[in-house]
Amino acid sequence: MKFKAADIANLLNGEVKGNPEAEIWTLSKIEEGAKGSISFLANPKYEEYIYTTGSTVVIVNKSFEPSQPINTNLIVVEDAYSAFTVLLNHYNTIKNNKTGIEEFARISETATLGDDVYVGSFSYIASNVKLGNNVKIYPNTTIGENVVIGDNTIIYSGTQVYEGCEIGKDCIIHANVVVGSDGFGFAPNPDGTFAKIPQIGNVVIEDNVEIGSGSTIDRATMGSTYIRKGAKLDNQIQIAHNVEIGENTVIASQTGVAGSTKVGRNCMIGGQVGIVGHIKIGDFVQIQAQSGVNSDVKDAQQMYGSPAINAIDFKKSYVYFRKFPEIVKKLDQLEKENKQK
Fold it and tell me: What is the Cα–Cα distance from 46 to 31, expressed in whole angstroms?
């Protein structure tokens, strides 16, 4: 699909400097620009590329003053980075604007589908499922019985949503996510074996949540596992049964949260963090990568280490950790001198 520079400028509330009829049909980095592409310049470190880029159009800030002749067309805006983000979102909307039921998709007669829904081949929509308007279900996806999915949500290929789970509006669930698998619940028997505890709850994912590829969110033993609105989960994350992830909390990849732990709102959790079960993490908490959290954390704390402690305390302690061999050597020397007296 082709667009003219003038069309893009109107979308971004910008002004064209150059040919408003110039046509573009793809996006690129400024250093990799080619004919028909549009790029942006926001960081002065990349200014050198605007004089050599092959991009047909480049989005720039109003404050930009070229130091050499420019051979491309410009769209001048208040904030080039924000404007390019708007353009990316617009492009993504157009790219994902699929509708209709593809061949080999299987949809139960009792399922309810909203307007402009897309269901890809080899997907299965079970009985009593409710899909909102503009929902996109990509191929090889299974939506279990009694699942509810809100408007404008996208579920990519290979995802499995177990029965009874709820997904809100404007969510993005990436490939091979599992929503609603059984929580890890087993009771020890006298003979040393383990008896499975039925997991009869569900998962509730609220509006505007994004979940990365290969992540798993277990259903609750009873009640619900909650991913609150605005939360963003990276790839390969494990959320156990009865966990609650608060609003607008972001979690990086390979993190695991054990059962019944409550994570507050607006937290930032780094990659490969391990969080034990049955604890409470407050609001606005930051946990640095590879930390292990084994007790409650109050609001607005920065945590690091395993077991995790306040990040400032950890950095102070680390000074002594590094000097520990030297300290031991000095202690040994003092002990030797003391024996000689």
Answer: 8
Q: For residues 236 and 266, state if they share a domain.
A: yes
Residue 241 is among the residues annotated as catalytic for this protein: yes
- Over residues 216-272, the pLDDT tens digits come to 999 999 999 999 999 999 999 999 999 999 999 999 999 999 999 999 999 999 999
Q: Are 219 and 181 within 8 A, CB to CB?
A: yes
Do 160 and 307 fall into the same domain? yes
* Residue 172: Cβ within 10 Å count: 18
Could you tell me if 103 and 124 are in contact, meaning their C-beta atoms sit under 8 angstroms apart? no
Domain of residue 268 covers 100-311
Report pTM: 0.84
Measured CA to CA in angstroms, residue 290 lies from 93, 214, 256 at distances of 35, 19, 11
Tens-place pLDDT, residues 114-144: 999 999 999 999 999 999 999 999 999 999 9
Catalytic residue among 90, 174, 241, 278: 241
